[in-house]
Amino acid sequence: MFYTDPKKNLNSEGVTKKYTYDALNRLSEVKDAIGQIIKYPYNASGQITNTTIQSNETDTPKVISTKAYNEMGGLTSKTDPSLSQESYTYNYLGLLQQTKDRNGSLFTYQYDEQNRPTLRTATGAGSVTQQNKTIIGSNGILLDTQEIYKNSVKSSSLTAQIDYLKRITSIQVEGANSSLTSSLGISYDKNNRIIQYNIAGGASTNFTTQFKYDRLRLDKV
């Protein structure tokens, strides 16, 4: 892998980009084709604390981002030079509970008793909300459903079914109020290879695609 500057610039090292690593083999500095230097200092836990840039070796470094962490090592904030900030909070198990981006949009996360994410909510300007809800075992242990809500009104859903080998065997998509429904069925052979797709509903005509194999690889569709 290599990189060539479009204008064929070379830095003082005679290359288009130079990477420097510290004693622990972590990336600590990058010098680009025009001599700009980006540095990455680390804290005692091995996490990047800020990122600086300078136009050359003698220029004063300018901080372009700062990061803070909690006692468990979880990222709690990222701040840019304009003091715009992203923030992160966690629950008592250390799972991400809430984030807030530079535009003030709020994202919250809920989990089930097995710490699996079940509800993600985004709240933007004007309190407009979008939610992604996960129903694990929505109709038995082999089916999971994803539902999307806008301002508390369900707009779509996707239900996936697996078999006891944890292979996806069907996917069903529904629009708001079940206004549009389409499904995909998937069949496998004894060698765990897909042999058939069955597509139904939606805007397309129902159809089936079959896959045939020779002893080693796909042969016909």
UniProtKB/TrEMBL annotation:
PANTHER family: PROTEIN RHSA-RELATED (PTHR32305:SF15), PTHR32305. This is Teneurin-like YD-shell domain-containing protein. Residues 11-130 form the Teneurin-like YD-shell domain. It comes from the Bacteria. Keywords: Repeat. Gene3D superfamilies: RHS repeat-associated core. It holds the Pfam family TEN_YD-shell. InterPro entries: T6SS_VgrG/RHS, TEN-like_YD-shell, YD.
